Amino acid sequence: MKSPVAFLRRAVFIAMVTCCLGLSSLGNLPATTVQAGESTRMVELSDQNDSYEGKLIARTPSHVCIMDRFGLMTSLEINKLKSFRVVAGNYSPISSIGLQQSLKKELPKGYEIAASAHYVVMGRKGKADDYAKLFEEVYRQVDTFFSVRGFDTHLPEMPMVAFVFGTQAEFKAYCEAQNDQTMTKMRGYYSPKTNRVAMYEDPSQIIKVTAGVSDQELLPPISQDLFASVTGQTADVIIHEGTHQVGFNVGIHSRLGTTPRWVVEGLATVLEPPGIRSRGKAGKDKVNDERLSWFQGDYSQRRKPGDLAKMIASDDTFSGQTLDAYSLAWSITYFLTENPARAGKFAKYLKKVSDRNPLHVYSAKERLTDFQEIFGDISRVEVELLRSMGQVRID
Questions:
Q1: Is residue 39 pLDDT above 90, yes or no?
Q2: Region 324-348: what's the mean pLDDT?
Q3: What is the DSSP string of 177-234?
Q4: What is the assigned CATH class of domain 96-249?
């Protein structure tokens, strides 16, 4: 049993942590978050394992979440904290130069660091600058897509990081070091926890680019003369995972909580076709041919009334019927974003999801209620969706 003095010291310590979050006491108050961009103090917390420096961004009665200057988020148990001190009056995210210097200390042999306005990218020597320019162009196009549709966005709080490994083995080793073993079979992924994209090149599809024109038009309207060489699937991964990363950094999605997967994957698949990221393109250039083909073909043979409500309410469909779920997520997102009236409602829906307390469980009932409050009865939306998708052609 703790002595009265030790108990008092513990109570004072917890009160100090709580005070840093601007609250009077932990008690049974609901989970609380600190919005990005607010002036918050830089603190240092220590437990039995390590020390953590950054800003406190959320808390529950039992945990606090701290984000360091590099964007890494860590959840800590309050009862296991050993020390706490204020380091500075305001949180200061790492600068691009500081980030580059830090990453160079861990740079594998044969790799280099390149930076752009919003990115710091690690890649093989002679390739990092090309990839940084590609990520930057994806950012510009995705941000424009969000802006013209009235989505509420803000500038990234800190430079975004991407690792483009030269081999699958190096990528696998990185995943294992990050305790992301489930990602080792993927071509790449974005991690909300670290705020980084990690991926590897596809050596089988090198496409040389000369005089600004390639033999295969991979990424119009991106200027092809930006690249000395690029790989087909690597470019696809950069677009898909880059879209995720941009969405989580400009306020479309919350890094803290659980954004419905259909929203995250729907936007990423909608933004895969080059035409959707460029103004003035015809409707057929904006369609994701692969997702539409699956939606109108294989999935149509299994589709059941209520599938849309099932996907809106739960992410389970992505585990059981992955390709069906991706195609349905693409179709509903395309349906909602390509019509101006529906796009306005979708912007309101995204804000509603983003504004909810991310530390609270987002139940199936709440997910469905939020969707229907914005778009109306979901069975009617499903009927309209099927009618609309039946009229979309790719030839």
A1: no
A2: 94
A3: HTT-GGGTTSSEEEETTTTEEEEE--GGGEEEEETTEESS--STTS-GGG-SEEEHHH
A4: alpha beta
